[in-house]
């Protein structure tokens, strides 16, 4: 009887001391890390392709229809359905282009429309029946002005036919508010002779004088305080009287 009680007590003690271990755990080897159920990585939706704007090829003819062709301009001549007569040429320093069958053709001083008609007439006279000719300017090198002096962004800027003095100054981001006066000079070379005239921007804004047109290769200089003496040496010129044929 005594033996049974001792055996029962031992079993109870052992049962109380028992440790419930997770599956795969071993007392001999220590506690093994059980695999804790974690968050399953959610499947992200497939990456959507964001539509991209396709880069558009700039239009070949980026100049105004009344643009006047000049030396060093690069032009495209397209004769419809006659690829042998079509191509890209550069206007030489004399203002001419060299075209198949025609040889030298005068291009400077003409608009793209005028040159198209001229080339069509020349080809139609001898070589092509009722030719359809299109001329476009691919690179404008001749129609540029230089804007200097008291402007926000001095530089060389392309112009089109009819660009005025006020517009040329605006291309350079306008007069510098801290430095500029209202006096602006235009320097122009005509027939190898350098001419100049001074204009007042205030008078132009107020409509007292006409806004003169600038021409290719003009140099526009906006007056600064440091240039006053220089500008005083240039006599103010009535642009449409004394130099009416030039300015």
Summarize the structure.
The chain has 5 helices and 10 strands; from the N terminus they run αββββαβββαββαβα. The protein has helices at about 1-15, 110-125, 165-170, 200-205, 230, and strands spanning about 75-80, 85-90, 95-100, 105, 135-140, 145-150, 155-160, 180-190, 195-200, 220-225.
Considering the chains and any ligands shown, give keywords for the structure.
247 residues; wza like fold; Outer membrane lipoprotein wza fold like; 3-stranded antiparallel sheet; 5 helices; 19% helix; flat; disordered C terminus
Which helices and strands, and how do they pair?
Elements: H1 2-17, E1 74-79, E2 87-90, E3 96-99, E4 103-106, H2 112-126, E5 133-139, E6 144-149, E7 155-158, H3 165-171, E8 180-190, E9 193-200, H4 201-205, E10 219-224, H5 228-232
Parallel strand pairs: 6-10
Antiparallel strand pairs: 1-2, 1-5, 3-4, 6-7, 8-9, 8-10
Fold and architecture overview:
It is a single chain. The protein is 19% helix and 24% strand. The chain has 247 residues and is α+β, with helices and mostly antiparallel strands. The chain has a five-stranded mixed β-sheet with strand order 7-6-10-8-9. Mean pLDDT is 75; it is low at 16-61 and 237-246.
């Amino acid at each position: 009887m005594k033996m049974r009680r001792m055996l029962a007590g031992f079993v109870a003690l052992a049962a109380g001391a028992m440790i419930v271990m997770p599956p795969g755990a071993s007392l001999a080897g220590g506690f093994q890390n059980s695999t804790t159920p974690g968050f399953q990585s959610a499947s992200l939706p497939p990456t959507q392709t964001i539509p991209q704007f396709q880069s558009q090829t700039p239009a070949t003819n980026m100049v105004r229809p009344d643009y006047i062709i000049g030396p060093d301009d690069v032009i495209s001549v397209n004769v419809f359905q006659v690829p042998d007569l079509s191509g890209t040429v550069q206007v030489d320093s004399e203002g001419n282009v060299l075209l198949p069958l025609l040889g030298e053709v005068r291009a400077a001083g003409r608009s793209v429309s005028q040159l198209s008609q001229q080339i069509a007439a020349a080809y139609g006279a001898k070589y092509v029946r009722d030719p359809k000719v299109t001329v476009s300017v691919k690179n404008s090198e001749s129609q540029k002005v230089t804007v200097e002096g008291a402007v926000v962004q001095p530089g060389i800027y392309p112009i089109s036919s009819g660009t005025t003095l006020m517009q040329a100054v605006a291309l350079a981001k306008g007069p510098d508010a801290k430095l500029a006066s209202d006096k602006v000079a235009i320097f122009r070379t005509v027939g190898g002779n350098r001419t100049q005239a001074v204009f007042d921007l205030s008078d132009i804004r107020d409509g007292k004088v006409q806004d003169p047109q600038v021409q290719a290769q003009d140099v526009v200089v906006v007056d600064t305080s440091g240039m006053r003496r220089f500008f005083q040496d240039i006599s103010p010129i009535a642009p449409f009287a004394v130099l009416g044929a030039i300015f």
